[in-house]
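A note on notation is needed here, since sequence and fold are reported together in a single record. The reader may check this reading against the record printed directly beneath this paragraph.
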Amino acid sequence: MEFETTESEAIRMSGAGLSLAADRWRPVGQAGKGVVLLLHGGGQTRHSWHHTGARLGSEGWDTYAVDLRGHGDSDWDPAGDYGMSAIAADIQEMVAHAKAQAPGLPVALVGASLGGKTSMIALGESPGLAQALVLVDIAVRVEAAGGRRVFDFMRSAPNGFASLEEAASSIAAYNPNRPRSGSLEGLKKNLRLRAGRWHWHWDPRVMTPPEAPEDPSASPLSEVIYERSKLAAQAITCPVLLVRGMKSDVVSDAGVAEMRRLVPHGTYVDVRDAGHMVAGDDNDIFTASLVGFLDQSLSPCIPSNRKSQS
């Protein structure tokens, strides 16, 4: 059924010692189906989920799109701690906040790239944290070439851009498959003007965490993170959906095959014309797949009294 929803509401959530920015969409006047946390990739912000969040709210899901620590309007960590463990601890706090707002309802974690990798680790290491997991173009194994291309792009403008047009050209060169927008206004959500130049709206230390020389787990490409992700994936028993962009250079056929072995109960969807940024490259197909998966997977988890109201 169609739900009446509020406009998105900007809120703050507690992370592990930090304050995190989020947008929330929720059903009005009747019980929702459950809670969805949308977690973006490295270098992105919560605004990458805008259309998906609005659609999920209209479908009856109490939905939060959250800026990860060091990104967007969330706090920067004083010590520059942006490792996997720190973000996974933030996810624990996000879930606790969401559950307090909607007690008894199931929770789904939806993560793209970095947000998906840390969601996988958080859930695998804390069974029962959520009742479903959606991975958006991320798997246990990250293809080195694709991962390095993402990192190189994030490091490519340490001194910022002279104009929004220059920033748009940089994005187009990185992601030539996505049609270029005729408006530059949306870029202002991911950039900040400082001393006359436009800078990406994240802490530069996200790319160079201080613990990196001693702690190889700081890098998503490290063997330590691979092994940790592998153990986490094997421990997950709840429904899992992996949505891969067929043009992605981050998740390969071999990576999907490995996920099928590690999570044999999972569902796997390929989006033909999308790259690594699946949610933005083909939002309608991605969101339709997401809504169908959530409805099918989490319906049995919804208390019967809530079902009767919705």
Summary: The CA atoms of residues 174 and 216 lie 27 Å apart. The beta strands are 9-14, 19-25, 34-39, 61-66, 107-112, 132-136, 191-194, 197-200, 240-245, 267-271. The chain has one domain: 9-143+216-309. Residues 9-143+216-309 form a domain with the Rossmann fold fold (CATH 3.40.50.1820).
